[in-house]
Design a protein that fits this description.
By secondary structure, the chain is an alpha+beta fold. It contains two helices and seven strands; from the N terminus they run βββββαββα. Strands 1, 2, 3, 4, 5, 6 and 7 form a seven-stranded antiparallel beta sheet that branches. InterPro entries: A9CJY8-like_N (IPR049447), ACT-like_dom_sf (IPR045865), CASTOR_ACT_dom (IPR027795), CASTOR_mTORC1 (IPR051719), UCP008459 (IPR016540).
Length: about 120
Amino acid sequence: MKNQKLNLKLLKNKFGVCRLEGDRPIPDWADSNDFYSITRTAEELSIVCPEENIPSDIICEKDWKCLKVEGPLDFSLIGILARISTLLAEEKISIFVISTYDTDYILVREANIQAAVEKLSANGY
């Protein structure tokens, strides 16, 4: 991973990370054309979607921006998220990560996105 340069793309929307009860059906508002993620466990239904889609009565954390690692990424690659998360941790920047088959998405609070972009750019991303 050390020598490979990865490109990151800042997605345009602001996102919310929502928590619903695990037995709730997937709500219609979760679906968006651009980017959303839904994960169900026995304890919760977790939804990440554009914050303008989220009803006011839903438990959520808003004001997240999203950096997409341009993929697709090969499954044999090692340390992508470890390196990114370490760099951001050095700046005391909290992240929320979503991985898909092709790539990774790193959500960063909007208040920290500029510092995150600067730190990652300074380190070859």
